[in-house]
Amino acid sequence: MTGFPAVCGPDEVVGMKGRTAAQELASVLGGLHLKAGKPTLQALVRAGRQQVPAVSLSTSSLGDWLKGESVPSNRAAVGFLFGHLTALARRRGEPVPDVSWTKLWEEACAEKRALRGGRPPRPRVVTAESLAAPAGRGTLVSSLQAADACSKWEVHPSAVATSGNEGALPLYVRRAHDAAVRQVVAQAGAGSSGMVVLVGGSSSGKTRACWEAVQELPAGWRLWHPLVPTPAKALADALEEGVAPRTAIWLNELQRYVGESAGKEAERVAAGLRALIQDPERGPFLVLATVWPEYWTAMADRPFMGADRYPQARELLAGRAVYVPSSFDQAVSNDMRAVGAHDPQLAKAMERAIDGQITQYLAGAPALTDRYRTAPPGAAALVRAAIDLSRLGGVSRIPPGFLEAAADGYLSDSEYDALGEDWFEQALAYAATPFRGVRGMLSLVRTRPGVSDSTPRFLLADYLDQAGRKERLYAAPPASFWQAARRHLDEPQVLTSLARAAQARWRDQEAALLYQQVLDSGDTSSALSLEWLWKERGRPEEAARVRRKAALAGHVPALEEHLRELVDAADLAGAEQVLREAADKGVPAAQLILARALEEDDQLDEAARWYDEVARCGDTEVLHAYASDLRSSGDLDHARRILQAAGDGKAARELAFLAAESGSAEEAEKAAMDAFAYGETRPLHLLAQKAVAEARSADGVRYYRHAVAVMERRRRLHSTQSGLTDLLAGPRPLTDFINPSKLPMPAGETWALRELVVLLDEVEGQQAGDEALCSAAGGGNRWALEMLIRRLHERGAGQDGEALLMKKAAEGELWALWTLAHRARHDATAYRAQAQDLLKSAAAAGIAQAYAAMVEDAENAGLTEEADQWALRAAAGNYTQPLWNLIRGREKTGSFDSAERLAWHAVTSLGTSVLRQLAEKRNADVAVPLLWRAHEAGMPWAPGMLATRLEAAGEHTQAESLARIAADTGDRDPLEILAGKRACDDPGGGWMALLANGLTAQGTTALPW
Prior knowledge:
mainly alpha, 3-stranded antiparallel beta sheet
């Protein structure tokens, strides 16, 4: 076959004890199976279905793997088997083999490919050392040393030195966020896996809070910080290979592990962490993460336009945030004064810190700022280049070659002329020198063992990183920055981020060069952007060149478009050439299209060979397309095998439908259960409905009970996440709680419980339905509790319902507590003080609607400041609707100053989104002063919005200046809109040239390129 080059062959593949790699894998797996107590193959299949996401297995495949007759092709299946069998063996007290399953499996897969291709292999020797699995990762919590907090765990050292405590951390004062963090830590220590992400600005105390909380883990726990060879790859590989229970995973700077900064590893990490946290059989585990607000927003918010490239990451992060304020409020300051009497560092920080930013002062932020402001020109240029690389490319660990190449563009002519021969060494030494007990502005990062790239890196001080983003917000990097990036950086995700930043700033030629470098590396993610840039330049031949290169590298949309163009041009020979070239390079989509074409031409033998390659490709989309072809042709058995190879939720659903159409009842049930484990609910739902329709009530009950059990487990996992709980869609009158009309379902999959209750009522009586609801309500299902109370009221047992409601409220069940508070608030006979106490209790429990009620009541009573505080507290918990309602209400009544003041207060917890919405909704007279203030405060959206408003008001010169500032900020649209309007009356052609060629790095109109 030409699609997959072989890497080894059967004659030279020799494992330990003379066995092949496949035999060695089977031997280790079989030994582990024996130590685990020889669970039945059916039990392993069921255990795989219960994973989240589910792992699809079959008893025949398992038997073949254990006997060494075949090699598994699905990495997730192998990882699950080793992890699950290891956990079972440890429970039985059996020693487990210290081997790396990933290395065993990869060797076996390489051997399988060689046997298929028959090409001369590379010699391979398997040794015990090469397969050795790492020991328990990390450091025992019980052996953590306070002296290591700064050097090993990235806690900021104190820059406030006093006699006798140099290098020591100051005493710790707890704040509100500490309670949320320690709750997750306590749950992990008690056996329930969890994750918490501390979101806050630089030096706000995030990492120190994690350090303090982790000390409370029980004996036997380990703390592990994945870093080598890269943070994301280290974590992704470990998650697939297996992490020992009772491990706390330390993810300082979360953007290095999840999201765009992590590149292609991001989704592997997110999926692995989700599976780790959600599997009670493997844990407990604890994930402690920290991140700046701007990175959190980029990772956690779904993109406004375009496809969501990181769905696993967004699912992982939902509800995990705990916000860390940048300053200490009055109540905490009082505690700090008490502690400060025993700690001179705190006392000194409290005396000198500004605006309550005590942690920043302790971390040396003022000293770093002074050092930066007084730096010689060469050192300042290095720091500015580092700031730009961090803010535009997400890189804070920077190679010195980049710094030297980029720096000259940040110097004036006179500054550059004054530099000495060894200016770079002197500047770097100045920037790296510690100052007043603080690490340097650029501190050397030591290369850890095992890292293939030994190039030293310099770490930009994170306070300067954050402060520099504000300082350089309206500044575009010089030409030397882009040139240095192309010469000294090679990670595709970094280059892609920089290219997007250049494009957003109208530096289109710089963007094109960076996109091209990414494409030349074999990464096709930038292909469409590069093609668009060439089309905008009116260069279709260059766009076609990019499209062809991307097509041959495996970019499916580019391949399809390129083939369509060739066919439309009647160039069938050219289309075939492209197809064969891409297929020979191993592009699965090309292989499938080629196989289809050959089959239509009756070249069946060659078509069959390419179909064989497709069947082994591992590309789920291509496998689904192939399976669809097979189903259409009636080859259902072959379609099943291809769907099994795809191994995802969509495949499980299609397999369930196939089984329902042509399989036995047992096969249909098994396939529906498999699909349900993936989250594909329809096959099982249809199976249950069919059973009820055919009067097979026992089967229907069994199906619904299984669905309820899975759904309840998922719901409980989500309900333990931090953040405010949204119990109801909106305010509801008192009668809604006992009205016998149909109860609306909350978000989720409550249909199984609802239909189970209906079926139980019919076949076993209402008591059985009550018991099912009571069981779910006992696990915290508010829908079940409300439905049960309604049923009791309908049957005249309202007192029993009220007693149940009171009991659940006393136990801390949130829906019951909110129901009592809501009733008291709307009950004219209830005391106001009693209603307020209940509402405050509900708010303290994290119920979003309680905050909304407190805001509404305070505003209606004229208690403006109290309403503001409740709205801001809700917003700090990521529940922004009460705040926005309050602002809009004041705008409608003409209280513009009050509304704007509240929006500015919200900036500390929410960022600038509320201010932006306010500016968008105001008319020009009121909006422009707000926009000017926002511009002066460094809000990146303000210049563009100002440009649009001022252009409409006839202030053309000022509008152009602001549109260019917006472009330098990364807001491309205002200048494009302005150029489009002015190009109609453009005698000199300057605006047309800008639209055609973009800007140079210096901000002037670029020449054609």
